[in-house]
Specification:
Layout lengths: L1 H44 L1 H21 L2 H33 L2 H7 L4 H30 L6 H30 L4 H28 L10 H27 L1
Length: 251
């Protein structure tokens, strides 16, 4: 009885993981390679440091001159950080996909049969790393420029906000960057596609960051529901982008 039951009970358990494991391993291997390639390109070109950071910093400085009121600046600092981040996202995505289309790298990956989900996840990972570095620098600038204050519990909320917000922006930027990459007038098309979609991230991240900095006497607890919304947003675009990126770059 044991001899007949053993194969029947063991067969599904042993066959199931083996069928999905190679595909998943291939996707993550591709993602690591693509992310490494994009980050090496950034390290050599230093676009974030030489172009994007000065641009985003200038946006914040110009707002400081325009508002010219310490109380108003402290209240609007979180929103300005995320607004500058979204402007920077546009610049980074446009530049990244311009490089891919100019040298035919994206077409070469597609023709070679490289996993589109792996390409999407790899480019999203590289973009998220670049955005996270930029956001940390902009938050430091906001603390100095706008005299924003941050407590220990606020710092925990802020870090927890940065992760899903940055991931969501990276997923959206990669998805719509791939969509606009081969289109005519992509420089004007990408902002039209990108800005309406990232509005929930701008709102949610701003509200959570306001709670982290205690803007307007906001309590820390007020920020956590917004973090939950950011997590849902990142999950939706992560799954949707992974499924849709292949058909998009085939067009």
């Amino acid at each position: 009885m044991n001899d007949t039951a053993s194969p029947a009970s063991g067969s599904p358990a042993s066959g199931s993981p083996a069928s999905g494991s190679p595909a998943a391993a291939s996707i993550w291997r591709t993602a690591r390679l693509v992310a490494g390639k994009d980050l090496r390109i950034e390290r050599r070109s230093r676009v974030i440091v030489n172009q994007v950071l000065p641009f985003a910093s200038l946006v914040m400085v110009l707002f400081a001159f325009a508002l010219d009121n310490d109380e108003v600046l402290q209240r609007t600092a979180p929103g300005l950080v995320w607004l500058a981040t979204i402007f920077a996202l546009l610049v980074v995505v446009q530049r990244a996909f311009a490089v891919e289309t100019a040298d035919g790298a994206l077409d070469a990956l597609r023709v070679a049969g490289v996993s589109p989900p792996g390409i999407f996840l790899g480019k999203s990972l590289a973009l998220a790393v670049q955005l996270l570095v930029l956001e940390l620098l902009l938050i430091g600038l906001a603390v100095v420029l706008y005299e924003a204050t941050l407590t220990a519990t606020g710092a925990v909320l802020l870090v927890t906000t940065l992760l899903p917000a940055t991931t969501g922006l990276a997923f959206v930027g990669t998805l719509y960057g791939g969509l606009a990459a081969g289109a005519r007038g992509r420089e004007t098309l990408l902002p039209l596609l990108l800005f309406p979609v990232v509005a929930p991230v701008l709102i949610g991240a701003t509200r959570a960051t306001e709670a982290a900095f205690g803007v307007g006497h906001a309590a820390i607890d007020e920020g956590w529901p917004w973090v939950g919304m950011l997590l849902v947003f990142a999950a939706l675009f992560g799954v949707g982008g992974t499924l849709a990126f292949g058909p998009l770059i085939e067009e």
